[in-house]
Amino acid sequence: MAAAGGLLADAAFESVVEVADVRKRMSELEIRKLNWAADLHALDPLLDDRDRQRLPALWQCAQDDDAQVHVAEIDGRIVGRITTHYRLRSEMGWLPDADTERFQSEGNAYIETLMVQDDLRGKGIGKHLLDAAISSGVSRGITLFGLHTDEGNSGARRFYEREGWTLLHIVSPVWSNGSPMCVYARAGKSEKGSRDE
Ligand SMILES: CC(C)(COP(=O)(O)OP(=O)(O)OC[C@H]1O[C@@H](n2cnc3c(N)ncnc32)[C@H](O)[C@@H]1OP(=O)(O)O)[C@@H](O)C(=O)NCCC(=O)NCCS
């Protein structure tokens, strides 16, 4: 019994330490724009092959102010990212899809590749990244934001719905290889025209 009690006490101590550690790390959370010169190495673990392939095009779009990447940093490590596209640029390799096109034209913005490092999910980092992307878009006059997420990605769907996004419809665009994708949207400004940041 004494040994079991000891184990339980150890486990409780470890979980207290873990919570304290996570709190400390979260207090060091910084959401900022990607520094293209300095951050690429640190960003790499959060990229897949397609992201890596499209990086030079994304860099060019960002230089031209047609796209923006925000990252979440904790203690010098990049632990999350989000990309916002303001104008449809052919070099990004988009396949034809009415929603992707619509959200990158006429004062709209398209959110892509929101991702948080898997062991740090559920701690608010995704919300902070999304808020930063929306805030940046609103400050440049974006009135409508849109995104796709996999119909089966229930966690992400719950997340977007809680953040005030509305499901417009479900589609199977050519790039999803037949997978149904949810199209979500949210306004950039409130109906009164004030900033919704
Ligand atoms: C979706 C995602 C960006 C949310 O980031 P996050 O930092 O975990 O989000 P927050 O902590 O601000 O909000 C937590 C909510 O995210 C959702 N969520 C999705 N996946 C999650 C996970 N693995 N762990 C915890 N929460 C998750 C839940 O709805 C959760 O809300 P709940 O705690 O009420 O259930 C993140 O989970 C992620 O990177 N998922 C994998 C990539 C992905 O699916 N991106 C969306 C593509 S459109």
Give an overview in words.
There is one protein chain. Residues 1-5 and 191-197 have low confidence and may be disordered. The protein has one domain (2-187): Gcn5-related N-acetyltransferase (GNAT) (Aminopeptidase, 3-Layer(aba) Sandwich), CATH 3.40.630.30. Strand 2 and strand 3 form a beta hairpin. The relative contact order is 0.12. It is of the alpha+beta class and 197 residues long. Strands 1-2-3-4-5-7-6 form a seven-stranded mixed β-sheet, with helices on both faces. The longest helix has 26 residues, at 2-27. The chain contains six helices and seven strands, in the order αβααββαβαβαββ. The structure holds coenzyme A. Coenzyme A (COA) binds next to strand 4, helix 5, strand 5 and helix 6.
Q: What is the number of independent domains?
A: 1
Radius of gyration: 19 Å
Number of strands: 7
Note the total helix count.
Answer: 6
- Uncertain spans: 1-5, 191-197
The SSE string, one letter per element, is HEHHEEHEHEHEE
Q: In CATH's first tier, which class applies?
A: Alpha Beta
Mean pLDDT value: 89
Oligomeric nature of the chains: single chain
Per CATH, what is the topology? Aminopeptidase
